[in-house]
Amino acid sequence: MTDLVVCGLGPAGRGLAHRGVARGLTVAVVDPAPERRWTATYGAWADELPDWLGPEAIAATVPRPMAWGTRAHQVERRYVVLDTARLQTSLSLPGAQMIADRAVQVSPERVTLASGRSLAAARVVDARGLTRSPTRAEQTAYGVIVDAERCAGLDPLFMDWRADNGAAADETCSFLYAVPLDNERMLLEETCLAGRPALTGSRLRARLHHRLRSRGIRLTGAEPVEHVRFPMQGGRPGPHAFGAAGGFLHPATGYSVAAALAAADAVAAGQDVWPPAARVVHRLRGAGLRALLALPPADIPLFFDTFFELPSAAQRAYLSGRTDLAGTVSAMRTLFAALPWRLRRRVAAATLGIPVPSRDRRVQPWEE
After folding, report:
1. Which H helix or E strand runs over 68?
2. Do both 180 and 143 map to the same domain?
3. Whether residues 11 and 111 fall in one domain
4. Which of 166, 238, 284, 358 has the most CB atoms less than 10 A away?
5. pLDDT value for 236
């Protein structure tokens, strides 16, 4: 019998299958297009990445990225942009059985495929990602890849909420994400962090073009384009799902790749990566997303001003401390105490699941 079947060959699924092969397991992977090349851009905090990931997977490093709410903040933490092609290649699967099919029914020890075939294994792990739903908040983004020389003077930006993208003050906010892809190119991306519904690609495109014009960056129209859209909610921690589907997506930031890669070895070994502390942190992060959805657009930059003024350890705990319950609670408590009173009331109500007016609709306590 096969030791491990992994359904889905995105970064999480491929990372898990790769570590299974490295451990000597018999591995089968199921994906409708297992040879499809990834096109998305993945970033991570350098200290989140596992030691087994080779340096060739890193395309660019930003020692201290900038973040803007209404004012500038330097984040004292090294940020990396992954080389998507090399990352995929580095997660090699020698000896794994590659099955080009679609999983339609997944259970802990068996998967049924669209072709009617059934596979049994000691373990089946679902890494197919999250399905979209009108009840789930989404993150959307529209980006262009620009020659670095045209971006001279633009610092790498983890997020920039300044109001120079042409949006009205009462509209859903979006921020600029600007990172180097290598020595010659930068990705400039207008991002809706979370919305229900999220901003459309066309609206983000208009905002990005307006923002870049206001900063003297001219586009030719021939730049490669990146589109982003994925759910921020719906992950369920447990032993039989992995990646975004398994609760590894941070529901208040949208990051998941580094966390999944960091846990892939342990999951491949059959270890429990969801101790009680991690499950509580997951729920607290979900509360953080509810708070973001409940904030009025004009207050979002102020919220992030407050967050990026927290001590670096507190920022790190909230952004990356998947099992650090004490650090997460401390960070959330410190952030809450530093917010203006009017925001504290709104954040408290949303965190506790009390219905409050959101940017687009009412946030209900069961919509996590």
Report:
1. strand 66-68
2. yes
3. yes
4. 358
5. 94
Is there a single domain that holds both residue 297 and residue 355?
A: yes
CB 60 within 8 A of CB 182: yes
CA 315, CA 252: separation in Å to the nearest integer? Answer: 13
Question: Has residue 63 been placed in a domain?
Answer: no
Instruction: Name the 3-class secondary structure at 360.
Output: coil
Show the tokens assigned to 61: 């490093």
288 & 358 share domain: yes
Query: Cβ of 142: how many Cβ atoms within 10 Å?
Result: 26
Q: Are residues 250 and 119 in the same domain?
A: yes
- Measured in degrees and rounded to the nearest 5, phi and psi for residue 282 equal -60, -45
Q: Is residue 37 part of a domain?
A: yes
Angle at 162 between CA 157 and CA 166, to 5 degrees: 120
- CA–CA distance from 222 to each of 40, 147, 210, 218 (Å)? 18, 11, 17, 11
- Between β-strands 356-357 and 66-68, what pairing exists: parallel, antiparallel or unpaired? unpaired
Q: Is the pLDDT of residue 251 over 70?
A: yes
Burial call 295-318: b when 16+ CB within 10 Å, e when fewer: bbbebbbbbbbbbbebeeebbbbb
Sign (positive or negative) of CA dihedral 107, 113, 117, 119: negative
Q: Is the pLDDT of residue 164 over 60?
A: yes
pTM over 0.90: yes
Local structure of residue 199 (DSSP, 8 states): P
Q: What percent of the chain has pLDDT over 90?
A: 91
Q: Residue length, the chain?
A: 368
Q: Residues 340-356: what's their mean pLDDT?
A: 80
Residues 6+ apart with CB under 8 A from 85: 37, 38
Crossing angle for the helix pair 11-22 and 257-268, nearest 10 degrees?
Answer: 30
CA distance 100 to 117: 12
Structural tokens at position 343: 């925001």
Domain limits for position 33: 2-58+91-130+234-268
Is 216's pLDDT higher than 80?
yes
Ramachandran region of residue 111, left (φ > 0), alpha (ψ -120 to 50) or beta?
A: beta
Query: Is 82 inside a domain boundary?
Result: no
Q: Is residue 364 very low, low, confident or very high in pLDDT (cuts 50, 70, 90)?
A: very low
Give pLDDT, residue 353.
Answer: 67
